[in-house]
Structures are given as structure tokens and as C-alpha cells.
Design goal:
This protein is 35% helix and 19% strand. It has 15 helices and 16 strands.
Length: 434
Amino acid sequence: MTTPHRAVYIVDGARTPFLKMRGQPGALSASDLAVQAGRALLARFSFPPSALDEVILGCMIPSADEANIARVVALRLGCGKTVPAWTVQRNCASGMQAIDSAARNIMLGKSDLVLAGGTEAMSRAPLLWNASMVSWLAGLSASKTVFQKLKKIAQFRPSYLSPVAALLRGLTDPVVNLSMGQTAENVAHRFHINRTQMDEYAVLSHQRVMQAAEKKYFSEIVPVFDNKGNYFTADDGVRPDSSVEKLATLKPFFDKKWGNVTPGNSSQITDGAAILLLASSDAVEEYRLPVLAKITDIHWAGLNPAEMGLGPVHATVPLLKKNGLDRHDIDYWEINEAFAAQVLGCVAAFEDSPYCHELGLAAPFGKIDLERLNVDGGAIAMGHPVGASGARIILHLAHVLKREHGKRGVATICIGGGQGGSALIENVSGGAAS
């Protein structure tokens, strides 16, 4: 992010419950989820949806009828034909990228009021024809005579019907040819993180989500309804009975012989949306909007795709350095829980002298207090709809800062392909925009 010209405020936000994939397409499409979250959010304010300057959403796997899904959502929200909308894609950080793009336009004076966030219906990721089937269909279509068509039909093989799962392909890095889970195994190996540590962290995530839900700390969640009259009010992947003993019975999934990463200590494949309203000080004054938090800066970094889980370290260190801060200036942290090994790996890397030296630090960045990290749990328990998670962690961090009277927080996420994104936000709730 360039040097700020104007302040950017998080006015408010809403997210849907995160709904775990259960072997079949979910009840709601990605646009359905975003529309319901956005509608609930906009209903809190007196300005019409047409007052928005733009709508920006992140999404990785929109359906065939959701091209430029942000525009689809904007029109369904009643923004009108004159409000532009566009979709961004940065893998797991697509929702954070949408917020960054919106913030930049507000900083530069191009926009004053923007709806930004992310959405994903991972359960609806398509099954694709394999290359052999595509080639056969193309040949059949090109056949001109009955004889040619019959000849092509005779060449058909049952193996052509083997589908390609777009979700699995999307969660595999094509450059290093490793699944995201395998990259988590690499991080665990590098920092000597064992199976027990991973499972203990996973249990902690479930416990914290349950405790936060009991205390009604997820006020950003709004109910959603499908077209059959069913409704959903809470994240449904949380396991109240989770324990280290139960998780220990699960077999490694990504490296079946030597690995320690299992479905139990990994994030869940999930559907969900998270939408934020961002505004300039001019918009805050014009529409008399509340102010939840201020976006100070967002930074992006690249690293070895085979260790993509360490992206938060690479993005956070320069983010804080650029803003003249260190870890002592940060009151609360959100590190998206793609895998327990990845979160624990980041914590270890921040303390590791050789690793920090690679980042240009003369000394270790230092220890992150686990009591201030993901205090209300994370994606291992809630789920990780990839287009939405970057927006979710920023929104929830803003609520944590307000609730706990913290001043600054960092929301950071690892990104498939070997990147990291980090957002620095400040608590200005209850005060005037400045």
C-alpha cells in the first residue's frame, strides 16, 4: 500500500455462518451468501445502496453463472446499474485483496464509500471433464458424417468419464506440484512441530470458538436462508467434543507414510461470505456513520511456494517496520488457521534467529503471546472459505480490539502459491473519525 493520503475506516461488517461441506453442493451459491451478508449490512444504514461508489469482492471459484461475481452481487443488492463492481482473486487472501483495493481507492480520493469483502461456495466447486474426454468430445463435434460419428463413438473409453475435481486442483500448487497440506508438512518439518502440538492447537481452536459463541462474541454473523426455508445461524463445523485423544485417531492425509497433518488439524472446506463497509472521513461525516476501526496499512510478500504457510511472517515483518512498530505495539493478532502446523510454524519463525536473519532482521522478531492470538478461535474450527477468510479475520479483529479496548491489531494470512498478506488496523470505535 502506498503512503496514505486519506484515512480509511471500517464502518461495520457482516458475515454469514461458515457452513461445512458435507459431501454435496451446499444450499447457497457464493453470490447468495454475499447478497445475504451484504443486505443485512446495508440495512443498518440510511443511505441507499446506490450511494456506494463501488463494490469489490474476492472469490476463487465462482459458478459458471457468476462471472464477475461482484457485479452480480451489486445488482442483486439494489446498487443500480451505475455502481461499478469488480472481482479480485489472490487465492486464500482474495477477501483481503478486495479490502486493500477498496482502501487504496479511498486513500487516493477515487472512492468514498465501498462495499468490500469476499465470498466462496467451496462445496460447489465443479467436477471437470479430463483431457481425454474433452479431446474425444471435440472430435465427435467435428465429425461431419454418420460414419465419422460412429467411428468416434467406437473410440470412447470408460476412463474418459473420470472427473477432475476443480477443488483439489485448485488446492495444489502447479509450480512445485505440492498440495497445500504438503506445504504445511514442510513447515512442520522445518520447525520440528510434532503431531501432538498440532492436535493440541486444533482442540484449542474449537474450544475458543465455542467459548466465544457462548459469550456472543460473533455479533458479525447474520442468519442466512436457502430457497427451501432452511436457515443457518452459526458456524456448523465446530466440534464440541474435540479432544487430543480423538484427533490422535485420525490418519495423516497429505503424507500418509511420514506426515502429521490430518483433516482434524487442518481448516475445513467451507462455504461463507464476509462483507465490510469502508468509508472515507468525508463519507463518515456525510452519512453520520459509526466507526469501528481504521485501516492503517496492508502489505503483501512472496516466498517459496513449498513453504507458503510462512507467508504471514514475510508480510508482517516489513508491515510493522514500515510503520515504525514492533510486536510490542500489537495488542491482538489474527493468523488465519489454514493448518495448525502453519500457525505454529509462523509463531516459531517469528522467534527463530536464522529465519529472521533471512528476512533482514538483526535479531528475532520475538514471541507472539498465544493468549492474544486468534483469541476466539479460527478456521480449524470455523472453516476456511478461501475467498472470504481474509475479510473475516480483518472484521473479527476489529471487533476484538473494540471489545478488549486494544489499540492495534494485525490480521495476516498465508496464500497458496507462496505469498502472505498482513493488515494493520487501529481501534477508533466510539470516537470521531480523524
